[in-house]
Amino acid sequence: MPKQFENSDVNAANGERKSAEGLTRRQLVVGGAAVAGLTTAIASGTAQANTQKPPGPASTINPNGRFAGKVVLITGATSGIGEGTAYAFAREGAKVFFCGRRENLGRQVEARIKGFGGESTYMQADVRREEDVKAFVDGCVQKYGRLDIAFNNAGIVNPNLAKLHEQSAADFLDTLNTNTTGVFYSLKHEIPHMLRQRGGCIVNTASVSGHRGFTEIGPYSVSKHALLGLTKVASLEYAKDNIRITSISPGGVDTPMLRRVREQRGMSFEEGSKAIPIGRTNTVEEMARAVMFLASDDATAFHGSLVDVTSGILD
Which of 11, 28, 107, 125 has its CB 3.0 to 4.6 Å from that of 99, i.e. a possible disulfide? Predict the structure, then answer.
């Protein structure tokens, strides 16, 4: 039993009478609305979701959802985390403007969102090119009139698993140009719009590899370490301008990129999942929910936060 709960009966004996839900008067008073919400959840039997069977994506759109009327820009949303997050925001009423290099996939994602009643626009862009990024961000504002939330998600892992002395300079630079310089370009062109409208929220996709070194994916790890630094600097520079800038650091997430890396390492998808403390690989929907939390009004104190979404890999 965790230590913080071991002495609950002792506390009650010392004059902290427990409520029917097992919480002391002090806990109820100090916790305020949060505790009230918790007690309601306890009473209804839904206080704790099953981490082994996480909820899937919403099945219907809510035009009056949490992000109704908000304009959300996403880079790299033609697959993986970006794609799943585009669906999630659209189902909560947001207008989603997204990019990716592969036009055929982009059009498919756009069609799926419109198919369930969401608002979405795809624009082909390569985040390695500043002119593409500028056109993409400006295109979003021209179409929808503003930019409320940006999810800078586009990223790649080096195509060949190899030690540093075996990495090609071209692959190394391409990884940095996509994962780090691409986010710099995005910030550079997103922030002026948010300054004009006096506020906004930006979430960058980092990685567990930005906190630890992993063999044979050196360029990727280096790029994500740099991205965390970029997030910290940007958050400090614009905190007083009502622009919140944070990052998520996913661990293993069920995406085509992760499946390819595991295959290259000679392991099955299931074998790779066993190394994760909860015993399974995270879903893109779980990452989408983390992004949506950071983009919501519930996260107003999150500035420069490097949020670990690794299911225990970073302990």
Answer: 125
Tell me if 103 sits within 8 A of 124, measured CB to CB: yes
Which of helix, strand or coil describes residue 261? helix
122 catalytically annotated: no
> pTM value?
0.82
Ordered by start, the domain boundaries in the chain are 3-44, 71-309
Q: Token pair of 170, please?
A: 């071209």
- pLDDT per position as a tens digit, 198-249: 999 999 999 999 999 889 999 999 999 999 999 999 999 999 999 999 999 9
Among the listed residues 87, 122, 185, 220, the single catalytic one is 220
What topology does CATH give the domain 71-309?
Rossmann fold (3.40.50)
**Tell me, what amino acid is at 36?**
A
- Cα 264 to chain centroid, rounded: 25
